[in-house]
Amino acid sequence: MSVGAAADSVSAVAISPDGKRALATKPAANKIALLTIAGDKVTYDKRDLPTGIFPYNVVISPDGKLALTADNGNGGSSDGNIDSVGVIDLEADPVRVIDHIAVADSPEGLVFSPKGNMAVSINAQGSNYPKDTWFHHRPGRSAC
User: Fold this and answer.
1) Strand pairing partners for 102?
2) What pTM does this model have?
3) How far is CA 54 from the centre of its chain?
4) Per-residue model confidence as pLDDT tens digits over 98-111
5) Which of 15, 16, 46, 66 could disulfide-link to 21, CB 3.0 to 4.6 Å?
6) Ordered alpha helix ranges (H), the chain
7) Interatomic CA distance for residues 71 and 53, integer angstroms
Protein backbone atom coordinates (compact mmCIF):
# COMPACT_ATOMS: atom_id res chain seq x y z
CA MET A 1 0.00 0.00 0.00
CA SER A 2 1.32 3.42 -0.88
CA VAL A 3 1.50 6.28 1.59
CA GLY A 4 -1.21 8.17 -0.33
CA ALA A 5 -3.57 5.20 -0.17
CA ALA A 6 -3.04 4.89 3.59
CA ALA A 7 -3.85 8.58 4.06
CA ASP A 8 -7.16 8.08 2.23
CA SER A 9 -8.21 5.01 4.24
CA VAL A 10 -11.53 5.49 6.04
CA SER A 11 -12.43 4.08 9.48
CA ALA A 12 -16.00 5.41 9.90
CA VAL A 13 -18.79 7.18 8.00
CA ALA A 14 -21.77 9.14 9.30
CA ILE A 15 -24.75 10.20 7.17
CA SER A 16 -26.78 13.28 8.06
CA PRO A 17 -30.41 12.75 9.11
CA ASP A 18 -31.65 14.38 5.88
CA GLY A 19 -29.47 12.02 3.82
CA LYS A 20 -27.78 14.88 1.93
CA ARG A 21 -24.33 14.80 3.49
CA ALA A 22 -21.83 12.25 4.75
CA LEU A 23 -18.66 12.60 6.78
CA ALA A 24 -15.87 10.04 6.44
CA THR A 25 -12.93 9.78 8.85
CA LYS A 26 -9.44 9.64 7.35
CA PRO A 27 -7.36 8.73 10.43
CA ALA A 28 -3.92 8.57 8.80
CA ALA A 29 -4.48 12.04 7.29
CA ASN A 30 -5.99 13.51 10.51
CA LYS A 31 -8.98 14.75 8.50
CA ILE A 32 -12.70 14.31 7.91
CA ALA A 33 -13.84 14.14 4.28
CA LEU A 34 -17.04 15.99 3.37
CA LEU A 35 -19.29 14.15 0.92
CA THR A 36 -22.47 15.29 -0.82
CA ILE A 37 -25.31 12.83 -1.41
CA ALA A 38 -27.92 13.40 -4.12
CA GLY A 39 -30.19 10.39 -4.49
CA ASP A 40 -27.90 7.45 -5.24
CA LYS A 41 -24.93 9.65 -6.22
CA VAL A 42 -22.17 10.43 -3.69
CA THR A 43 -19.71 13.20 -4.54
CA TYR A 44 -16.38 13.95 -2.86
CA ASP A 45 -15.35 17.53 -3.63
CA LYS A 46 -11.84 16.98 -2.23
CA ARG A 47 -12.71 19.10 0.80
CA ASP A 48 -11.38 17.80 4.10
CA LEU A 49 -11.64 19.23 7.60
CA PRO A 50 -8.60 19.12 9.89
CA THR A 51 -9.38 17.34 13.15
CA GLY A 52 -7.40 16.16 16.14
CA ILE A 53 -4.87 13.36 15.82
CA PHE A 54 -6.20 10.12 14.25
CA PRO A 55 -9.97 10.71 13.93
CA TYR A 56 -11.27 7.18 14.42
CA ASN A 57 -15.03 7.70 14.65
CA VAL A 58 -17.63 10.32 13.67
CA VAL A 59 -21.29 10.91 14.58
CA ILE A 60 -23.86 13.49 13.50
CA SER A 61 -26.42 14.97 15.90
CA PRO A 62 -30.07 13.94 15.41
CA ASP A 63 -30.92 17.46 14.15
CA GLY A 64 -27.98 17.42 11.71
CA LYS A 65 -26.47 20.65 13.06
CA LEU A 66 -23.28 19.27 14.63
CA ALA A 67 -20.89 16.39 14.17
CA LEU A 68 -18.36 15.00 16.62
CA THR A 69 -15.11 13.18 15.90
CA ALA A 70 -13.35 10.78 18.28
CA ASP A 71 -9.73 11.84 17.78
CA ASN A 72 -7.99 8.70 19.02
CA GLY A 73 -4.38 9.98 19.01
CA ASN A 74 -1.17 7.93 18.83
CA GLY A 75 -1.91 6.27 15.49
CA GLY A 76 -5.07 4.66 16.82
CA SER A 77 -4.03 3.24 20.17
CA SER A 78 -3.83 4.17 23.82
CA ASP A 79 -0.67 5.86 25.04
CA GLY A 80 -1.73 7.41 28.35
CA ASN A 81 -2.01 10.93 26.94
CA ILE A 82 -5.09 13.12 26.73
CA ASP A 83 -6.94 13.15 23.40
CA SER A 84 -9.87 15.09 21.97
CA VAL A 85 -13.34 15.08 20.50
CA GLY A 86 -13.66 17.51 17.59
CA VAL A 87 -16.84 19.55 17.10
CA ILE A 88 -17.93 20.31 13.53
CA ASP A 89 -20.55 22.97 12.72
CA LEU A 90 -22.55 21.51 9.82
CA GLU A 91 -24.70 24.65 9.50
CA ALA A 92 -21.74 26.99 8.99
CA ASP A 93 -20.85 28.13 5.48
CA PRO A 94 -18.35 26.73 4.94
CA VAL A 95 -18.68 23.72 7.25
CA ARG A 96 -15.82 23.86 9.78
CA VAL A 97 -14.33 22.54 13.00
CA ILE A 98 -15.37 24.89 15.82
CA ASP A 99 -13.96 23.23 18.93
CA HIS A 100 -11.80 20.47 20.38
CA ILE A 101 -12.91 19.03 23.70
CA ALA A 102 -10.28 17.32 25.83
CA VAL A 103 -11.15 13.72 26.75
CA ALA A 104 -9.27 10.83 28.32
CA ASP A 105 -6.88 8.60 26.41
CA SER A 106 -8.00 6.96 23.18
CA PRO A 107 -11.66 7.81 22.50
CA GLU A 108 -13.21 5.19 20.24
CA GLY A 109 -16.96 4.84 20.73
CA LEU A 110 -19.01 7.98 20.25
CA VAL A 111 -22.77 8.58 20.40
CA PHE A 112 -25.35 11.36 20.67
CA SER A 113 -28.42 10.94 22.86
CA PRO A 114 -31.71 10.64 20.90
CA LYS A 115 -32.55 14.31 21.65
CA GLY A 116 -29.02 15.42 20.74
CA ASN A 117 -28.54 17.29 24.03
CA MET A 118 -25.79 14.95 25.26
CA ALA A 119 -22.90 13.05 23.73
CA VAL A 120 -20.74 10.31 25.21
CA SER A 121 -17.27 9.19 24.23
CA ILE A 122 -16.01 5.75 25.24
CA ASN A 123 -12.29 5.86 25.92
CA ALA A 124 -10.03 2.80 25.79
CA GLN A 125 -7.59 4.27 28.34
CA GLY A 126 -5.13 1.43 27.91
CA SER A 127 -7.71 -1.34 28.34
CA ASN A 128 -6.05 -3.08 25.39
CA TYR A 129 -2.65 -3.12 27.15
CA PRO A 130 -1.25 -5.43 29.85
CA LYS A 131 -2.22 -4.68 33.47
CA ASP A 132 1.30 -3.59 34.35
CA THR A 133 1.22 -0.78 31.76
CA TRP A 134 1.09 2.52 33.68
CA PHE A 135 -1.93 3.82 31.75
CA HIS A 136 -3.98 0.58 31.79
CA HIS A 137 -7.58 0.97 32.98
CA ARG A 138 -9.95 -1.94 32.91
CA PRO A 139 -12.41 -1.89 31.13
CA GLY A 140 -11.89 1.64 29.79
CA ARG A 141 -13.98 4.68 30.73
CA SER A 142 -16.71 6.92 29.36
CA ALA A 143 -16.97 10.70 29.40
CA CYS A 144 -19.97 12.98 28.77
Assistant:
1) 84
2) 0.85
3) 8
4) 999 998 877 888 99
5) 16
6) 3-7
7) 5
